Amino acid sequence: MAAPKKGRRPTGAQGRPGRALAIILIAMVALTAGMFVSKQTTPRLGIDLAGGTSITLKAKSEPGKPDAVNETNMNTAVGIIERRVNGLGVSEAEVQTQGRDHIIVNIPKGMNEKQAREQVGTTAQLYFRPVLAFADGAPAAPEGTQSPSPTASGSGAPKAEGSKSPSATPSSSATSQGRAVSEALKAPSATPSPSASESKKADDSKATPSATPPAAPSPNPSGDAAAADLQAKFAALDCTDEKQRAAIKGAKPGEPTLACGKRGDAWGKWVLGPAAVEGKDVKSAKGVIDQQAGAWIVTMNFNDKGADAFAKVTGELAAKQSPQNQFAIVLDGDVVSDPSVSGAILGGNAQISGGFNQQSAQDLGNMLSYGALPLSFSEDSVTTVTAALGGEQLKAGLIAGAIGLLLVVIYLVVYYRGLALVAIVSLMVSAILTYTIMALLGKGIGFALNLPAVCGAIVAIGITADSFIVYFERIRDEIREGRTLRPAVERAWPRARRTILVSDFVSFLAAAVLFIVTVGKVQGFAFTLGLTTLLDVVVVFLFTKPIMTLLARTNFFASGHPWSGLDPKRLGAKPPLRRSRRAGSAPVPVDAKEA
Prior knowledge:
Distance between the termini: 8 Å
Helix content: 40-55%
Shape: elongated
């Protein structure tokens, strides 16, 4: 055999296999440590394996819209509900229509069921309304009884970006609060527009020393009767009563209304003007941590129409005193936040801060971002799904996978002998990486392992084993050509590498397309198949190839032991001749070991 040229490093840099092995060892240790640190030592299971909750929603036609329940609106509602559920970190949740007017939502076990149920069927009709008056959620106390009213400057009131909540003058009694409401409703509008955001402030001189801040713009210029009626309803409203909260909902966007909501654990009630901005004008919103203050906030981004309207209303409210310098974010008739402003917020970007924890900030961000459902829904039924059937199927699938793996191992041992050890250890490394990554993804992005995902992992065994076989056969081809093991390992690698990369690329492309064009559980199969295909490349490059380089230096493999799987005699190695023989001349015998 011709000796390699001096100073030329053989292909594959065979002198440094330890570096690649160190990298994959560090990765395995880091992933395993991360799994234990995050306290997520097992993959999160999907609803078919772990059970969960199944919610059936029934669509209701709105008054005056008998044809609203149709296929288009139902499909739109499915898409919005699915985005909301995934916004809670629920992967593998199933959202699908059933019949003409039902939607089935399956939520895997281990998620916040109460939180999911609150957001799944919420219609999310969202409006930004100016605040005219605020009081405790209970009915007004008798004359002379002290009943201080919470204000926007209190701990429960959030603030819009850059605002400083001015000091509010609390009313001394429910009676004075009622007088303030009356003045706000009876104040004449300076323009013919009924919008509260376009009217001027009432004359400050009309307010008495014991009254709440100056009168608000008139949301209803029709006269004293409407003002007195709304004042009476506001005073009598008990927001702790669920029936009363339901009775005040349904106001049109252009009309003033009463609303209830919670500040912390206490109920409050509001008199609100006509809607100044609609929720559909919010382009995106999310709950994030303010890096400077270290507190949770909600960031909002408006479209062009919403940005103009929001800048206008915040500019007008900023000139007023609390609580009339606040705007209420009203979701399905309930006030979810009432931030105060101190100046016009321009540019279409805003932040709501104060009084949020992680859950409340993310909940509000989800609602603002994903928008309103085109239909109203009621919970038809809520049932608990057991994992009994899925558990039996998983057991059967695992048995089938174990049988398949055993057959692969038997084939490798019989056909490749010593090389089978390399393949088995490589499969173990791939299994460790797959398991730890799936466990961490369950904690990180909510990945849930369902039955199709298990099938994808089982299919991946064949893909990974195929990569080893390609490399082993390339090495054997080089030995058949008369080369010794060490150069054969290095010369076989470039050709095997190309084949492995092309094969894995095709598998990954198929998995990616399947993930994009499908929904539900099939995506679990595609995701797992794609993940294990990528890990196959990692294992072959960083483990199998370096291990073969090291084994080629051992006497057992380098000498072509019969049980190594690389015996030249068994492989039918050719003599290492590089020039043609004369016709008719007998071949020169060459000892196999010297070949």
